[in-house]
Design a protein that fits this description.
Strand content: 15-25%
Keywords: Coiled coil, Glycoprotein, Glycosyltransferase, Golgi apparatus, Membrane, Metal-binding, Secreted, Signal, Signal-anchor, Transferase, Transmembrane, Transmembrane helix
Pathway: Protein modification; protein glycosylation
InterPro entries: Glyco_transf_54 (IPR006759), MGAT4 (IPR057279), MGAT4_A/B/C_C (IPR056576)
GO cellular component, one term: Golgi stack
Helix content: 25-40%
Number of strands: 21
Radius of gyration: 28 Å
CATH topology of the largest domain: Spore Coat Polysaccharide Biosynthesis Protein SpsA, Chain A
CATH class of the largest domain: Alpha Beta
Family: Belongs to the glycosyltransferase 54 family.
Shape: globular
CATH superfamily of the largest domain: Spore Coat Polysaccharide Biosynthesis Protein SpsA, Chain A
Length: 503
């Protein structure tokens, strides 16, 4: 309840905040000369979208509701145990003689209630009832870190020829900054104990009782009995990992034990996810191969695990995941193309890939897999970033769909053609921001010649500036301050850019 109350209080407070600011880019009349202006002003406009703030608050509410459902489920389990205990005594008075009259009355009332029978995982995996520890890790090593942004799960099994786990862990951990190491958890089944005490790495292993009898599985889709057993166990491994990780972070990323990662992979994934509304996606794909680099929102893991448990013996994990999307958005009366378009709205692909498959010898005995992600070798043509909420527009003609909106959201680079006098780019911030630094990137590795030249950057402060600012920067006739300038012969140096909210 406290979480819900806090959410409502912040929501009301947020709705009372008004004011915004705009940045304008213009081109001079005598050359290809871009001019950037920043306008700050307040007003009584109520229709202001605080997308990132609302998204964060909504996620907190979802987590609070999720925890409430978990507590309710736990209480129902306790109630069921009471019923069983009373049923075993056959209503014997001797069994209740040590309880007070009020307690006896309460127990009888609880036992007499007959709620609807809600399906759960025990309907699909009844063998779990044979051992009360079937869903508790048999081995659990780590610091039990929770509250992180991202949880990465790596299922691993013994490979007869070569293990790639150590190489995978080194690639993932070495490319994390000290701050990022505090904001994530990597969960694996075995190996590498050197970073366990910091909380970054956790090792788990399910009990033997977690697995059903895998000897009598039906052969399907032309797969051998051994392959059916392998893919079925793999489905159960993924499910156990997800159940363990669901309470630890905001996002969960599925990885494999035979991959390498690109530099800055963590920040890239996190920032890309933060730019998207939670309702807009179910899966973010940071690799095109199999189940590698697939990101989910933690609250969605319960649905995914339930679906896997229902069909874990029928199909491999990537097929089941596709079926979940089909059930959610596909219309049986429409054709396959329509279905693919609908699924693509929930499955968002990030390019280039951040992970590469390096394993040659599969965990399935005798299987050689020469799988590589071709997108992994492609350069990252833009850097993912988080900008303050703003409305953007431009008079420049957009080329091949590389819009300014996507650029500002960190999804793509902006590409326009034929700049002329009077062209502009306009940024309207939802509320005033304090600009500490700015970054202006122009051109990329594939198109180094396509860049803005002969450009000035000018800002119009929201508040009256002090004497130091007036002395340092030249002021224009329309009250802007010129803070940056470059020409055709003197291209801009790449500067860092960050903003913070004004008090």
């Amino acid at each position: 309840m406290n979480s819900v109350r806090a959410f409502l209080e912040e929501l009301i407070l947020l709705a009372c905040c008004l004011g915004f600011r705009k940045v304008e880019v213009q081109t001079c009349s005598f050359c290809t000369f871009t001019r950037i202006h920043v306008h700050d002003f307040t007003g009584d406009v109520l229709n202001i979208t605080y997308q990132r703030e609302f998204h964060a608050l909504k996620e907190r509410l979802r987590v609070a509701e999720h925890r409430t459902l978990q507590r309710s489920s736990e209480l129902n389990n306790i109630l069921e145990q009471f019923r069983r205990a009373i049923a075993e005594t056959n209503g014997s008075k001797d069994a209740l003689i040590n309880f007070s009259d009020e307690t006896q009355k309460l127990l009888k009332e609880l036992a007499s209630r007959k709620p609807l029978q809600v399906p759960n995982i025990y309907h699909h995996m009844p063998h779990l009832l044979n051992n009360e520890g079937s869903l508790h890790p048999a081995v659990q090593v780590g610091m039990g870190r929770t509250g992180v942004s991202m949880v990465m799960g790596i299922p691993t099994v013994k490979r007869k020829v070569k293990s790639y786990l150590a190489e995978t862990l080194h690639s993932l951990i070495d490319k994390l900054s000290p701050e990022e190491k505090l904001d994530c958890v990597i969960i694996v089944f075995v190996g590498e104990t050197s970073v366990i005490t910091s909380g970054l790495l956790e090792l788990i292993s399910p009990p033997a009782s977690y697995y059903p009898d895998l000897k009598e599985l039906k052969e399907t889709f032309g797969d051998s009995r051994e392959r059916v057993r392998w893919r079925t166990k793999q489905n159960l491994d993924y499910s156990f990992l997800m159940m363990y990780a669901v309470r630890k972070g905001v996002y969960y990323v599925q990885l494999e034990d035979d991959i390498v990662a690109k530099p800055n992979y963590f920040a890239t994934m996190k920032n890309f996810a933060l730019q998207l509304s939670s309702e807009d996606w179910m899966i973010l794909e940071f690799s095109q191969l199999g189940f590698i680099g697939k990101m989910f929102q933690a609250p969605d893991l319960n649905l995914i695990v339930e679906f896997i448990f229902m069909f874990y013996k029928e199909k491999p994990i990537d097929w089941l995941l596709d079926h979940i999307l089909w059930v959610k958005v596909c219309n049986p009366e429409k054709d396959a193309k329509h279905c693919e378009r609908q699924k693509s709205s929930l499955r968002v692909r990030f390019r280039p890939s951040l992970f590469q498959h390096v394993g040659l010898h599969s965990s399935l005995a005798g299987k050689i897999q020469k799988l590589t992600d071709k997108d992994f070798l492609k350069p990252l043509l833009h850097k993912i970033h988080v900008n303050p909420p703003a409305e953007v527009s431009t008079s420049l003609k957009v080329y091949q769909g590389h819009t300014l909106d996507k650029t500002y959201l960190g999804e793509d680079f902006f590409w326009a053609i034929n700049p002329t006098a009077g062209d502009y780019v306009l940024f309207k911030f939802d509320r005033p921001v304090s600009i500490e630094r700015f970054l202006f990137r122009s051109g990329n590795q594939e198109h180094p010649g396509d860049r803005i030249e002969n450009t000035t950057v000018e800002i119009l402060p929201f508040l009256e500036t002090g004497p130091k600012t007036k002395e340092k920067y030249k002021r224009t006739e329309d009250s802007y301050y010129k803070i940056g300038e470059w020409t055709c012969t003197n291209p801009p140096v790449l500067l860092s850019f960050s903003t913070q909210n004004a008090p």
